[in-house]
Hints:
ABC_transpr_LolD-like; alpha/beta; globular; Rossmann fold; ABC_transporter-like_CS; binds adenosine-5'-triphosphate
Amino acid sequence: MVIALRNLSKSYETAEGRLEVLRGIDLDLGAGDNVALTGESGSGKSTLLHLVAGLDRPDAGEIVIRGRDISKLDDRGRAAYRRTEVGLVFQQFNLIPSLDVAANIAFHAKLAGRHDPVWENELVERLGVGTLLTRYPEQLSSGQQQRVAIGRTLAARPGLVLADEPTGNLDEANGDAVLDLMLSLSKGTGSTLLMVTHSQKLADRLDRQLHLRSGKIA
Length: 218
Ligand SMILES: Nc1ncnc2c1ncn2[C@@H]1O[C@H](COP(=O)(O)OP(=O)(O)OP(=O)(O)O)[C@@H](O)[C@H]1O
């Protein structure tokens, strides 16, 4: 299994008291699985994605990624996990302002020790950002930034891609192209894709759909 979640729970302290967001999630995803995670606003989709990404820790339960419980790692261990094993496509693009598009796209691949100019060129081509390579993030529209951020993630060939509304800022044509790219990567390399989306149309294109309701997978 690439991802095995066991009895995962997470709550937040709020001014109104304790908010139990995830109440015992069990989930198994294998290599090459591509899965849509849906659910009402506030149902805990981003919370779950953040836990699997090692950005936050659960209250209880296990997050076993390729046989290792990442919730037991210290901050350094989780940072290494994020650098080498996961690709994150989140709504905040977090492009590096001082680097141009080409350098942003190569950045994670270099950090992960998997810099591959041929593959990066192919991504640039498929994402339609070839004319933007010498621009800086602040000189891009939000849709362009989103495509660059996706290129940066996929350039490192992560075995696990976690995406939160990856096509949220894109028009239909660009959104379809990005989804095609993510699915073909998942099928071609056996990488596992877990994607949060509000779009049923998008969810329908993935092999499996999970729906979060009342803190559980329905
Ligand atoms: N750091 C936090 N402190 C307190 N409450 C939080 C925190 N982060 C999230 N929440 C709450 O936890 C619940 C789940 O939030 P989450 O962002 O996971 O939902 P979501 O399903 O991704 O929602 P959306 O579809 O609107 O993005 C929400 O009620 C949210 O207000």
